[in-house]
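Researcher: Next entry in the queue.
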Amino acid sequence: PNVKATKAAIIGGLLALPLLFILLGEILDSKIRNIKELLNATKIPLLGVIGNNSHENMLTVLDQPKSSVSEAFRGVRANVRFLSGENGGSKVILVTSSVGGEGKTYVSINLASVLGLSDKKTILLGMDLRKPKIFGDFKIDNKFGISNYLTGEVEMSQIINKTRIPNLDVATSGPIPPNPSELLMSDKNIKFIEDLKKMYDFIIIDSPPVGLVADSYELMKHSDANIYVVRHEYTEKYMLKMITEKYHGGEIGHLGLVYNDYNTKQGYGYGYGYGYGYGYGYGYFDEDKNYKEPMLIRIRNKVQSLFNKK
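Model: Structure for this entry, 310 residues:
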């Protein structure tokens, strides 16, 4: 046998193997990894891009009102006007995502904070009744909340909490009820929102993920604008298919995207959708603590990092 040819074939195969892993990883990788991929996956307008960082607190805008992330959320706030219009009165803004861990609560909290800091009387509603979160960041007792009000246990005034921002109030989810869908779609909840519209300039609803339950779709019937949060290197492309079909089918209106936890090293551009604000946000996503990339993707990333080393 030709020993040299065999050795050359083996060496060539070994050199090609890393490239094969990269190619297979690209084929099998279905996550949104940059703005271009997001815009190719859906034609829903892009309202804003929030950069990534790591911190144990979601109150970025409240704690650092002059930071760049505040500017990013001001950009989102400005672009939401194109969704809801300038018809006066209260604006009900619903925030959702595909699954947990994409940052919808983070976006809800900071958008509400930006509105409150701009002298707009705002209330943030924790309507993800299955997974209460907002109370922890605002250090509010979650003993009584929206679930208690909707079951008739307490009055509305008992679940509205003040915050450090004079114009920002919060109503937390309350204890997890046995029938969250029925409560959210009840006539009492719709009346609750209508009553709040008489009291506030803006109502921000942190709603359940649409990929898990249908509650948010029902709540969208009563909102003026809807924000769909996509998380960088977390949200799967196929997850956007359902919301995109509903958007283009006319089932959902006044919808825009926020691209969250974006890696600043990849660069960014302008002119997407309505334009977008950009900032360094605190990427606090507790649902993601135990998340691991698939083995093949991790191998691909490792190989790529070796090739990128100087």
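Model: Residues 267-292 have pLDDT under 50 and may be disordered.
Researcher: Noted, moving on.
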